[in-house]
């Protein structure tokens, strides 16, 4: 009888220790979820500022381009056309025939960025890496709409 009591006590103690660590671990997960930055909205769109592309992006939907945006878009002609609904149609035409024309409709509050990862590979009419020149449309809340 004494042997059975010792076994029961050991099993109960083990169960208590295991439950303690299980509950403690689940509390940490909830805490981490509460403090983790939110980088997606309810539709799954990614927050642009947390995107790896953000560091290579230059605003092109503003009224003018800054010197860095001009350098990044070298070899492209940017055409802006105001639409009747208040949005802006922005077209990117490359002097390089290997590129496809890119056209974006930028609604009020949205921003269009040009992504150029490797500035050193561009010249006025040549580009050694065709995959690093694209645009990203960002909504008024900072989430990626299209790329």
How is this fold's topology laid out?
Blueprint: H1 2-35, E1 57-59, H2 67-72, E2 76-82, E3 88-94, E4 102-106, E5 111-116, E6 133-138, E7 144-146
Antiparallel strand pairs: 1-5, 2-3, 3-4, 5-6, 6-7
Shape: elongated
Count of strand segments: 7
* Average pLDDT metric: 78
Amount of beta strand: 25-35%
Counting helices, strands and paired strands, the structural category is alpha+beta
**Helix amount:** 25-40%
Uncertain residue ranges: 27-36
Instruction: Characterize the main sheet.
Output: 4 strands, antiparallel
Radius of gyration: 27 Å
Helix count? Answer: 2
Q: How far is the N terminus from the C terminus? A: 73 Å
Strand order of the largest sheet: 1-5-6-7
Written as H for each helix and E for each strand, in order along the chain, the element string is HEHEEEEEE
């Amino acid at each position: 009888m004494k042997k059975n009591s010792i076994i029961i006590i050991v099993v109960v103690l083990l169960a208590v220790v295991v439950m303690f660590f299980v509950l403690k671990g689940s509390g940490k997960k909830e805490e981490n979820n509460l403090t983790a930055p939110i980088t997606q909205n309810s539709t799954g769109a990614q927050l642009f500022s947390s995107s790896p592309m953000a560091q290579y992006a230059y605003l092109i939907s503003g009224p003018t381009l800054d010197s860095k945006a001009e350098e990044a878009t070298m070899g492209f002609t940017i055409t802006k056309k105001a639409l009747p609904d208040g949005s802006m149609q922005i077209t990117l035409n490359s002097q390089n025939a290997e590129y496809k024309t890119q056209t974006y409709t930028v609604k009020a509050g949205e921003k269009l960025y040009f992504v150029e990862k490797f500035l050193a590979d561009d010249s006025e009419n040549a580009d050694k890496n065709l995959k690093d020149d694209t645009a990203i449309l960002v909504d008024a809340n900072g989430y990626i709409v299209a790329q």
